[in-house]
Specification:
It is a single chain. α3 packs across α7 and α6 packs across α7. This protein has a domain of 113 residues: Orthogonal Bundle (Cytochrome Bc1 Complex, Chain D, domain 2), CATH 1.10.760.10. It has a two-stranded antiparallel ribbon with strand order 1-2. It has 8 helices and 2 strands; from the N terminus they run αααααααββα. It has 185 residues and is mainly alpha-helical.
């Protein structure tokens, strides 16, 4: 009898711990929240158009990301070689819906300046602007494969369609802007 109570208590404690772990990891929080907008000095910085989906740029970005090009920079040590974090708190670059919340300017800002309140440090002293864009082009292959950021539409679109001429493109910014800008208030 005493052993069955002990077994039941162990089971209940284990179940409670599992429930708390799921809650703490965001299992019940709903969709990810949009990030703050990039500050003015970063708001107009955008990926060079020839970088999106360019295999040579992506290969260079991978070499930087994995520390092969510069031993002082190794994004993979926290974010994993395939975008799956290996350290607690690191962004999971494989989560497409979360990745889509960030414009290219926001990604550039975060890599350049780091993220306050986290272990993500600023890399602008170790990487040039072009190297940062190459890293971002590589990181995009994890959760945004085949997409690029359309500055006019303020959204991620299929590769090769950003800035395409046409009435739909010209009307899209007005429709998309409130959604993108709302969190800034």
């Amino acid at each position: 009898m005493k052993q069955s109570h002990s077994l039941r208590n162990v089971f209940l404690v284990g179940l409670s711990v599992a429930g708390l772990t799921l809650t703490a990891c965001g299992g019940a929080e709903g969709p990810p929240k949009p990030p703050p907008p990039a500050p003015p000095e970063y708001a107009d910085k955008h990926m060079p158009p020839d970088h999106w989906g360019n295999p040579d740029i992506i290969a260079e970005g991978q070499a930087i990301y994995t520390g092969q090009q510069n031993i002082d920079v190794n994004c993979a040590s926290c974010h994993g070689k395939n975008g799956k974090p290996v350290k607690a708190g690191a962004r999971d670059f494989r989560q497409t819906e979360h990745m889509k919340l960030y414009s290219d300017s926001q990604w550039f800002w975060r890599v350049s300046e780091g993220v306050k309140g986290t272990k993500m440090k600023a890399w602008k002293s170790k990487l040039s602007e072009d190297e940062i864009w190459k890293v971002i082009a590589f990181e995009a292959t994890f959760g945004l494969e085949g997409q690029e950021y359309d500055v006019a539409k303020k959204q991620w679109v299929p590769l090769g369609t950003a800035g395409a001429a046409g009435a739909a493109t010209e009307e899209a910014p007005a429709a998309e802007a409130p959604t993108e800008e709302a969190p800034a208030e």
